Amino acid sequence: MALDERNINALTEVAGVSAQEAQLAMLLMPHAARRQASVLLNNSRFVHYTSAETAVSILRNKEIWLRKVACMNDLSEVQYGLARIYDACSPQKFQGRLKAALSKIDDSVVGQLEKLWGGWQPHLFSDSYVFCLSEHDGAEDILGRLSMWRAYGRSCGVALVTNAQFARASAELGAYTSPVAYFTEAEFLVAFEELVSNLENNIDFLRSVTIERLVGALFNTFRFAALGTKHPAFKEEREWRVIHSPQMDGARYVVKDVAVIGGVPQPICKIPLTKIPEVGLDADIPSILERIVIGPTQYPLAVWEAFVELLKQAGVANPEQKVFSSNVPLRAV
């Protein structure tokens, strides 16, 4: 399958990765790479639905919290993605073609990948932290998304709408951004077949990549498939994830801490909302925040005033023009 030069250019020119890295991403993670290129080319927006209390913390402390996947609301986190991977890699499916293609690149690739995956796979559930975003449409600028208010708004929900800067998270930051795929079993197999075909049809290019880099990229293909494949019942959330695994990714700009969320003490990871020129990230609040939508609440005026003041303190110009009350007629409980 020919690679889309427009998508490769988006990843090189807008995301700032090398041409080789962009092509490697398009071959090994085609679904995610196409989604990332689309977001960057179209200047798409993201939104984080949360409680007003958490939104205040984000703006006041100028940081986002990545939560342990074991504490997320999807009870099949990681297990669903792993089940799809092991089904696709079974002898009855793509195991033979996958190993044959990798062996043509270099005889050592299969063994190195199996060793790396076997060593780290047990840690995916215990050592992975995510910050969840959704794709945001212009039609949701005032009302937001009712299903998200119901799921995450609690008695007073807030939606923080941002530009596409979060799509630039990368290894240099110590965290990665990946779209969630809501694949059925059959859809996952179609996507996996595309990966295998890409390997089979691009042997010469893949031989130009160092073995260490190739094995690491293949490992991340499986890692993000496990962490970013969810049950199709969650499809309406249109989720993207900023992903960090302390043992795998190191500290860099991510700090591990402890917080009490919903009365439950738990480890979290923090990423500062600031400009980080060395990784090409302009993630300070005035640069990334486009608007705030206040969800169903008994006190819309007071909440509006509070967030206008918080934006003013954060250095956001004309904050009164960036905070909106949704007026969704949903009883807040």
Total domains, how many? 1
Number of strands: 12
- C-alpha Rg, in Å? 21 Å
Distance between the termini: 51 Å
Order of helices and strands: HHHEHEHHHEHEEHHHEHEEEEHEHE
Number of helices: 14
The helix-and-strand class reads alpha+beta
Overall mean pLDDT stands at 91
Unreliable stretches, pLDDT < 50, 5 or more residues? none
**C-alpha geometry:** elongated
Helix content: 40-55%
| Biggest sheet layout | 10 strands, mixed
The share of residues in extended strands comes to 15-25%
What features would you highlight for this structure?
single chain; 333 residues; alpha+beta; 10-stranded mixed sheet; two-stranded antiparallel ribbon; 20% strand
Protein model, in words:
By secondary structure, the chain is of the alpha+beta class. The protein has one domain. The protein is about 45% helix and about 20% strand. Helix 5 packs across helix 11. It is elongated and about 65 Å long. The mean pLDDT is about 90.
Write a compact overview of the structure shown:
The chain has 333 residues and is an alpha+beta fold. It has 14 helices and twelve strands.
Topology:
Blueprint: H1 5-14, H2 19-28, H3 30-41, E1 45-51, H4 52-61, E2 63-68, H5 79-88, H6 95-105, H7 109-120, E3 129-136, H8 146-152, E4 157-162, E5 176-179, H9 185-201, H10 203-207, H11 211-227, E6 239-244, H12 246-249, E7 255-261, E8 264-272, E9 275-276, E10 281-282, H13 285-288, E11 289-294, H14 300-313, E12 323-325
Parallel strand pairs: 11-12
Antiparallel strand pairs: 1-3, 1-4, 2-3, 2-8, 3-6, 4-11, 5-6, 7-8, 9-10
